[in-house]
Write a structure and sequence with these properties.
The structure is a homodimer of 899-residue chains. With 899 residues, chain A is mainly α. The first copy, chain A, contains 37 helices and 8 strands. In chain A, the strands form 2 sheets. A 4-stranded mixed sheet of chain A has the order 2-3-4-5. A 3-stranded mixed sheet of chain A has the order 6-7-8. The longest helix of chain A is centred in the N-terminal third of the chain and has 37 residues, at 97-133. The two termini of chain A are 44 Å apart. At the A-B interface, helix 1, helix 3, helix 10, helix 11 and strand 1 of A face helix 1, helix 3, helix 10, helix 11 and strand 1 of B.
Chain lengths: 899, 899
């Protein structure tokens, strides 16, 4: 691999030379070049290029894996191919890969978004057309009204379930987890992409109160991942992992941006929703891609003659000169506070429904069997209630989500009874009017019904988000308050002569931003609202309401996405709460696990075996010795398994047999030589006797180990895998089947005995099981050779006195999974995400008392001197001063730790 | 200190108990309590409270430093004070300190901003009034026009220079550095606050092309720092350093927010301009404070009857239904690209002027002598050129910045020659009209003149920013393009029947955002523009132009703030450039300093002395031994100095003399006992002989050491100090004067000989200099006792193969100053900000060739196995296996390092 890279670089170097000659005789040169390329195969391993390599830095890196068609036949074709290669190189190297990538991503997502919108619109039109065509018979109408969404949702649920169950739901919680550095299996595949796009189109086409924002974040990330894989055909940079994460972050922005044609809001929303720490240097990526995407998305509408020019998606036409009076601000604040409670209630309700369905064993069993029944039932219920001639007439049931939003943001006042001629409930606005019922009642009913419907609908296992439904509900609530204000102050509040009537549409804008902000715990919904409506005149009311809503909601409930993360048990680190300053006073020593599994540098394979059997940690600490406990690094479990399988593998056994045989032969041919060493040395005869017991013991432990394997996927909860479990190198697994030793079997297979007996009895391997066991025992007592082992020489280290706050910061900044706690180089504990999560959640609920040991308050909370460290070092120093043998004092306590 | 803390906690505990009894008999209890408090002084050291301490966790932390008036006389007063205390505690603990702080900060800044604006308006009006009143005589008019700003600017420069030279300039570069974790001396003091506010008001009142945004960021930070100090009177949490940084970040947002009444843009701009990594959990702070501040700022305008209601600062009235045509987008893109070049040119020009003035020795000397001459001259030049009856008539010279911006954003078209009746150059618009000269010429002249004037004016040493001037120039440029477009397409571009004329004001908005974005390298100017104008209809053109401008400007020049950081040589880490993926392939081992200064655990004071003399690092690495090089921690220089001064101090010498005398007496009285040990042991007689030489050598080294002391402050460049240099504990410095030993003198004083001779000859200290030197030599050979020393047990560690990219990320994430490079626990190098900066700047300019060693390209850029680590560990493993004495192999190479 390395040699290959060098050869390719040599080729690239020659190509680089060509640049220099370009102005001379291109035709002649192209021929030369082609001839050289053809010969390239023969003289690949030429060493002379080594000293020239420093000249072709950045350029060659891109093409290392490109795999150009080097097999050329004629000079003409050579020329063309050389030109192509050069053009390609130029394009890739000069324009900047990030740009190309982001533009492609933006373009792709804009097309997807537009296509999805187009299909949804057609679906909704079809439903209306069916419903309208059957207006002679109410029952038929009802059937059409109900059957259509049920079929669509059922199809969506079934399709997603079959193709890629990972596509279910919003996707933002999962993206948050992925951007945290966790690899979710099958989450960014083409299958998921197809399932998500088609599933989402059908789900939204059904007219259920579902949104497209969350799924679009996921779709954009899918797009980015697939595009990244595609682009990696052209250049090596696309394989860098940290770059991929950066691109995924940009993709999240694109997802929101092209969904609402809101580039700025998209970037901010995606940052707030997915990131803990944000690298400002990646900021432009999101803006660039989201702007391009939003631009193309809106240009498509213009080209499709839907719009005359590029405008906002839900354009409002509020008056500019006096958008609101100062004295209306309390009303806006009320909207904010009420939205905060509403948002928390929504999250709570959503979680309650999921948990209720999970807990009810009977329902659950039935629903699990008929997986499509639950979506169908929910859809039936919701669409029955919204049936326009039925209950739907009291809640504007015939309006689609989009139509409802447009009417709610209308700049006219509905409730102004006096001036009826101003307002004649044109078009969709008619839906809000009912001959018997007041418009206030309609609005209240709309809010209440849509509220639980949305909370219920978002639990259906189809690709769907909750942002848009919540947004509409918020708008309706704002409208309700606005209309009330308009009814209360028919001539406006302003007293200085000029009459400025109240604009209920502005209240709707404020309500929408506040409620969606409360549910998602974001402030950037304010920006989204401005970009959606194309007006920023209500900026202060919106900001005030959103901030108040956030303050209330964040103190009551987690955000919807965090709630889903908890429900799905995704490995995510919760945020530190607002102003919980006790966290500055909890230390790592209070939360760390002191009983660390470790291996020593001079351990034998038996220790390795035992450590692997008794724990299921992904990585193990490597210390210098059990006495010193000086941390040297960490080793992945897979590496250790490989080491063990190598040591006990068939290959080595065969070699051993061969050597034995050779020695035997030699001994036979040379009678003077001493007899060959016995196959098994007698030094550990005790262990030999206890082999059967040991194996028995191992087998029982085996059964406790097995639950760590990936369990079969359950519906509603996509399977989740941590990277190192996923990335267990396939050669190890395959190696097991070949080199099946007994101890290895114990480690890797669920039922080792049967296989072991079968496999090892036959073939040229003429050792008995007994002999193999003995040989293995002998092998296990050898010292481990770590020289071929990948060791991470700098696992992240904390000290005992690191505060919880700092630990949290470091974990989220660096995306850590665990960190070792050291004291002057000695390993004394380990903190993993689990402990940290426990500590944070514990302290959030009970204000620190749970995790804080009784003596924590003794500690000086300032930065000043630390007696612990001093005494610790003092010990070490004393030892150094007084002792001849280093590290004898610490032996006793570290021996305790090593069980 | 620690004991005191315990006592106070005991007091607090009693107060906590009071809560429990509140419902019983409050009056009785208050008396008891008061009595107990009065007795408090006597029984402070009572140990019984220790076991109860676990109950008074979070509550007591706040009041520890509150200093309530405990001296009470009557029960009534007791009761009142207890109530007051309780109320105070309730207020502080319940409402949440962050809220209160942010609200106060917002309120304060809004008031400051409004007051400054008010004063500036008065100043400008006064100038106009003077100029208008003298319209009979052009010469007098000129005098008035010129003298007024010259006086104001000179006053501002002088006032700032005298009171606080740190207030000069924008403040954003300094805030960026402070938020990076560097302590800039005197930067956040009340003096600076006063100087900045008054200086800024005068500077802007002069009518020079200067801005208030940058200074307001600084003023808000000053406010936050002062408020924080004030609030810390009420609670301990305000003293937490990481919290202070969070609050400063919020303050930056407030600064921009209340300057432009742009809360969202303020938050985003401040993030982009000051942060590298942003913690999303702090997001709300900025939004909350900035919104509140912007709200109050605009409410003040309403209360002052300037506005009818809360609106945008520069409200535009573009049409909503068809803001721009799709085919105008290329023109917007052209504005973006041209602005990018213009922005880069502005930064270059600004730097050029500063460097020119610095380099020209003759000018420089003269200007430095008469510090106020330079501002006066520049002001004279600028105001002469803008004199309205003179050259100013061709460049709208009589308009203030604000007026110019309002006219430029006007929604009418100036150049539409046909429809003259639509447009009659009303009010300020008249300034753009000239009877002889076309409006295009006026605009071009305005742009060109203001461009260099702004670049020049921002180099004046007064508190001023460059954002607003650049914003106005950008608006003028946009207007120019817009007017050209309007002249080119008089009936608009749209061809579908309806005539939509082109809106040049929209172009002005785009131009303003693009140019200011290019100069500051931010995208959020787009948001600021929307909030400033109150219209978001041009979002896509603005976004496109801003992104293009950023792309162009960022590839040509650093941002204005980074440029100032470089000019002022502030300790800041530059950003990694866009898409320079070579950085993923540079490793720490390529840039680290291998010759690390370290001290070993068993070193003697002489080593300490030498290490302190030969280097001027802030912290030194502590390793186990020179052979093992296992990193144990790092110690601050000041700590080591304290250790040394303790060892060689007068107190110990006195003790030694006393002991000697005692022994001598004892010996005299008891003739059988052996003679007392000689004052100086003879084991190191060689060293004793070379004392004089050593001292001489030390003295010469002293002179090379002295430049590390704070140099006298130069004008234009505020003195800068790193925290540990500042925080050298005063007791050490004072200790020097008392305990002046010779070696210590060498270390701390500039001219030690004279003082040493004087001081040590007299008083009861009856040792000769010779004896002292001998005694010190003896002391220096003792082993260091680290037990009373503060040691950081976990300095940040990297490994050789950490990439530059990751190193940069970690340094900027964690605000590091230096990090040790270790290999399996062994210290092998150190990387400081300096090396990192060099590596990044080297690679940014020459694409990695400078810092990349020739063999770097051989390395596998992937994440896969690392031979280095394996071989390194292999060595260690071999050693363990083969050797009886650990770490003998490594001795040879580590000995080389230890010189």
């Amino acid at each position: 691999m390395a040699g290959d890279g060098v050869d390719q670089r040599a080729l690239q170097y020659e190509q680089t030379l060509m640049y220099g000659r370009y102005t001379q005789e291109l035709g002649v040169y192209a021929k030369e070049e082609a001839a050289r390329l053809r010969e390239g195969g023969q003289r690949r391993s030429v060493g002379r290029s080594l000293d020239l390599l420093e000249y072709d830095k950045g350029r060659c890196a891109k093409c290392r894996r490109s795999g150009y068609p080097w097999v050329l036949e004629a000079p003409a074709r050579d020329f063309i191919s050389v030109c192509t290669v050069r053009c390609q190189k130029f394009l890739i190297s000069r324009v900047g890969e990030d740009w190309i990538f982001l533009i492609l991503l933006g373009l792709l997502m804009a097309l997807v978004s537009w296509a999805v919108d187009f299909c949804i619109a057609i679906c909704l039109q079809a439903q209306k057309w069916m419903y309208g065509g059957l207006d002679s018979n109410v029952f038929l109408q009802y059937l059409a009204w109900v059957t259509y969404p049920v079929v669509l949702i059922t199809f969506s649920a079934g399709f997603t379930q079959i193709l890629a169950p990972q596509a279910v739901g919003s996707g933002i919680p999962e993206m948050k987890t992925i951007l945290r550095g966790v690899v979710l299996k099958e989450y960014l595949t083409f299958k998921t992409f197809v399932a998500k796009v088609i599933g989402l189109t059908c789900a939204l086409g059904s007219g259920m109160p579902l949104g497209k924002e969350g799924p679009f974040v996921h779709i954009a990330s899918l797009c980015a991942a697939l595009l990244s894989r595609f682009m990696s055909l052209f250049g090596g940079i696309y394989e860098n992992e940290s770059r991929n994460i950066e691109m995924l972050a940009a993709a999240c922005a694109v997802g929101v941006g092209c969904c609402f044609a809101a580039p700025i809001g998209g970037v901010l929303f995606s940052i707030e929703v997915t990131s803990t720490f944000f690298a400002v240097r990646n900021y432009w990526r999101g803006f660039f891609a989201a702007t391009f995407s939003a631009f193309i998305f809106r240009v498509l509408a213009v080209w499709n003659r839907d719009e005359e020019t590029i405008t906002a998606l839900f354009k409002t036409r509020f008056r500019l000169d006096f958008p609101f009076d100062l004295q209306e601000l309390p009303a806006f604040a009320v909207i904010g506070i009420a939205s905060g409670f509403g948002g928390a209630l929504f999250v709570y309700l959503n979680r309650l429904i999921v948990q209720f369905i999970r807990k009810q064993k009977a329902i659950n069993k039935f629903l699990m069997k008929k997986r499509l029944l639950y979506p169908a039932l929910v859809t039936l219920l919701v669409s029955t209630l919204t049936f326009p001639p039925g209950f739907g007439q009291f809640m504007a049931g015939k309006l689609t989500q989009k139509e409802a939003l447009v009417t709610l943001l209308d700049n006219r006042t509905w409730a102004k009874q006096g001036i009826a001629e101003d307002f004649d409930y044109l078009g969709h606005l008619q839906a809000w009017q009912h001959p018997q019922v007041n418009v206030f009642v309609t609005l209240v009913l709309f809010i209440v019904m849509k509220f639980w419907m949305s909370a219920l609908a978002t639990t259906i296992p189809v690709p769907c988000g909750a942002f848009m439904p919540v947004f509409v509900i918020g708008a309706a609530f704002g409208r309700l308050v606005g209309e009330s204000m308009a009814a209360w102050f028919p001539d406006g509040i302003h007293t200085d002569g000029v009459i400025y009537p109240i604009v209920p549409g502005g209240y709707a804008v404020v309500g929408a931003a506040a409620l969606s902000g409360a549910v998602t715990h974001t402030v950037s919904t304010a920006v989204i609202v401005f970009e959606l409506t194309g007006q920023i005149s209500h900026i202060l009311p919106v900001m005030i309401a959103v901030i108040l809503a956030n303050a209330v909601a964040q103190s009551l409930q987690p955000s919807l996405y965090d709630s889903i993360i908890r429900i799905k048990k995704l490995p995510y680190l919760p945020e530190l709460g607002w102003g919980h300053h006790e966290k500055y006073n909890i230390r790592v020593e209070d939360i760390m696990v002191r009983d660390v599994r470790y291996i020593t540098l001079n351990c034998c394979y038996r220790d390795l075996h035992n450590v692997l059997l008794t724990g299921n940690l992904k990585t193990l600490a490597l210390v210098e010795s059990a006495e010193s406990m000086i941390l040297l690094g960490s080793i992945e479990r897979a590496q250790l398994q490989a080491l063990l399988s190598q040591q006990l593998g068939r290959a080595r056994r065969m070699e051993y047999i061969r050597e034995n045989a050779m020695a035997f032969k030699k001994c036979m041919s040379d009678p003077e030589s001493p007899p060959p060493p016995p196959p098994v040395e007698d030094t550990n005869s005790q262990q030999r006797h206890s082999t059967q017991e040991v194996r028995f013991q191992i087998t029982t432990e085996e059964s406790t180990l097995s639950p760590t394997r990936p369990t079969p996927q359950k519906p509603l909860k996509p399977a989740l895998k941590r990277p190192s479990v996923v990335d267990r190198p396939p050669e190890i697994l395959t190696a097991n089947n070949d080199n099946s030793g007994i101890a290895l079997k114990n480690l890797f297979c669920a039922n080792p005995d049967a296989e072991a007996l079968e496999d090892d009895g036959d073939t040229e391997d003429d050792m008995t099981i007994r002999e193999i066991a003995e040989w293995e025992e002998q092998q296990l007592d050898e010292q481990v050779n770590f020289s071929n082992c990948k060791i991470d020489p700098a696992p992240f280290q904390l000290v005992e006195r690191t505060s919880l706050h700092k630990t949290h910061t470091i974990f989220s900044l660096l995306g850590l999974d665990h960190a070792y706690v050291t004291s002057i180089g000695r390993l004394i504990g380990v903190v993993s995400l689990k402990e940290l999560r426990k500590a944070i959640e514990g302290s959030v609920t009970v204000k620190g008392t749970k995790v804080r040991p009784p003596l924590a308050s003794f500690r000086d909370s300032g930065t000043s001197s630390s007696e612990n460290e001093a005494t610790e070092l003092h010990k070490l120093w004393d030892r150094h001063k007084s002792m001849s043998l280093p590290r004898e004092h610490t032996q006793s306590d570290s021996d305790e730790k090593s069980q």
